Amino acid sequence: MPRLDPVRRFEPAEDVQLRAELRDLLGLGAEEASPATVPTPELKALAEDIRREAWRRTRTERKRPTWGLLAAAALPLLVALGGLGTWGHQQKQRADALALQAQRQEQTLQQLAATHASEVARERQAKEEVQQKLQIASKQGNRKGEPYLVIPVEKPLRVGSEDYQRVKQRP
Amino acid sequence: MEQSNPETPFGTQEAFQTAFAELYPRLVSYARRYGASFPEDIAQEAFVILMQREVRVEHPTAFLYGTVRTLSLTERRPMKNQNLSLEAVAEPGQAARAEEMVLSQEVRERMRLLAPTFREALWLFVVEGLSIREISDILAIPEATVKTRIHRAKAQLRDQLNPSGGTHAQA
After folding, report:
1. Cβ-based contacts of A44 with chain B (< 8 Å)
2. B10 to chain A: which residues are within 8 Å by CB?
């Protein structure tokens, strides 16, 4: 019976008793303390081969990728993503600044348009006032006569040979 | 560079050679019990796997038996159905041939009449001399289940000895 495990030195008495009963039922007889097995040279050589094989495998088998290796493998991707993020952030800030500038320009234009419209309205109002005054003045002038000066000219009924005036004597 | 005197799961190199000399034939027999085509290779592979473990194994003997059992059943499991439970291919193995090498005809006959699950636990407990805890580790079942199987095996053995039910009925 193997009793080779360093931590396996104690077994409950009831288990020992149960094993003895079962051996008895199977007709195996009482358990005898077998003498310590002396390893033969062949088994010793085999054990040494196995130990060497385990040692070789431990140092040659490819280990599972550790977190460090995974992080190193993912580093270029992370750098690319970081660069892309920085570039995107800069583009966003630039777009925000342009949008703000456009908004200010639009406000300025709106203010100019409003000023212009108020000036146009004022001029229109002044023109209307002048027209009203002219209309009022015209109505008042019609009562006395024409608003302009009329000079009557008596034209000759026929054009005669003497119908001219000599301004210089003939030589 | 190989270490000059590395620690083994069984302690010193001499302790490992002694354990190997005692356990190797048993493990070969255990692999043969599961119908392994190359039981020697499986037993050696189990030792190599144990020596490769970086974490200290609490019960090296149980670890070896469990590894041999898994490797043997995996070898027998059809390649196209690797997800099949190992328990499903546990029977029929070449248990009879393995038992022939250890047990007498009468004992073999008694063992053969037991249920396969009870026979497995009984073999490990009585013939291999493993503890309840180790059998629990090997079969990957709770210790209480191991005890139950062994006690039921004991009851079935008593039934075989007293078909009329004398001893078992009184127990």
Report:
1. 17, 21
2. 4-6
